[in-house]
Amino acid sequence: MNGDEGCLNKTQPIGIFDSGVGGLTVVHCLWKRFPQEQVIYFGDTAHLPYGSRRPEEIIAFGTEIVSFLLQFAVKAVVAACNTSSSLSLPYLRERFPVPIIGMIGPGVRAAARVTRNKRVGVIATKATVESGAYEKAFQECAPDIRVYSQPCPLFVPLIENGCIEEKETYQVARTYLRPLREAGIDTLVFGCTHYPFLAPVIRQILGDGVRLVDPAQEAVKELADMLKLKEGKAPAGEGPRHLFFASGPVTSFYMVGSRLLGGFPYSVEHISLDGRVEDHCRRLSLGRPQVGG
Fold first, then answer.
1. Which of 3, 58, 244, 255 could join 98 via S-S bond, C-beta 3.0 to 4.6 A?
2. Overall domain count for the chain
3. Which domain holds residue 89?
């Protein structure tokens, strides 16, 4: 089941998960548009970064996290992680009876609308780039667009450690972005929800002539359309009680959350999923389902 049928319960929360704090960019966009929606957030900081993980690990992480979120009777889930979206989304949609929105499709459709010269760059984790998910999505959406993908493995650790505008970050960013500048792109897709934190750095390096596409904003627009279609928008009322969980370190939530949200007045509860994840990994390694599409 994939949760496509029927209306949603308006009072139920929305689940959001990511490998760390990058998904807070989705939370930020969601609250700007729907401040009445309750969020249950899970950051898998124990397994960060996802970009160097095996596909079966990433699928197993997603399986356990969505199972955990469903304990809160969430009405929809946003897989606010491009790596997870590129590798596990079809599996998760088939397994769970709840609408699950990924990041790749919304970002690709937005980039296809705004590019002028049909040269689009994608910066992402190593796993996302190697999955070919963006190339496949562009081929289905706009086959005339040339896609230039660039893995940026150091970006997530830098962001999680609060190194947003340090000299080292600029040096790393210049190295990663050089091939995209040489390719003449006019549009850049943030292929990881962490990367919008580096937008000022990237803007300075690429210049104003390159349009930056944040899939977090596009995914929230897709979520909004789904809530409208399924009559699931939460009613106005008292401020919702948001819950934040992490499988590992929580420091980055307060550090990066304050930078993005102007403050982070929430507690983050530690939840371990390791035992069950290992079981899933073993099963998936023996017979991993096809995850294309």
1. 3
2. 2
3. 14-102+217-286
Predicted local distance difference test score (pLDDT) of residue 214: 94
- Please confirm, yes or no, whether 192 is among the known catalytic residues: yes
State the pTM of this model: 0.85
Which CATH number covers residue 131?
A: 3.40.50.1860
Same domain, 85 and 185: no
- What is the enclosing helix (H) or strand (E) of 123? strand 119-124
Is 19 annotated in a binding site? The answer is yes
| 82 annotated as ligand-binding | yes
User: Average pLDDT, whole number, for the chain?
Assistant: 88
Residue 193 marked as a ligand binder: yes
Which one from 81, 141, 163, 281 is the annotated catalytic residue?
81
**Same domain flag for 118 and 49:** no
Rounded CA separation 169/140 (Å) = 34
From CA 128, how far away is CA 25, in angstroms rounded? 19
- Provide the Cα torsion 211, 25, 29, 118; round to 10°: 20
Residue 292, both tokens: 């294309």
State pLDDT tens for residues 55-85: 999 999 999 999 999 999 999 999 999 999 9
Say whether 18 counts as a known binding-site residue: yes
Tell me, yes or no, if 141 is annotated catalytic.
no
Q: Which of 246, 192, 223 is CA-nearest to residue 37?
A: 223
Q: Annotated catalytic residue: which of 29, 152, 192, 281?
A: 192
- What pLDDT, on the 0 to 100 scale, is given for residue 61? 94
- Ligand-binding site membership of 194 (annotated): yes
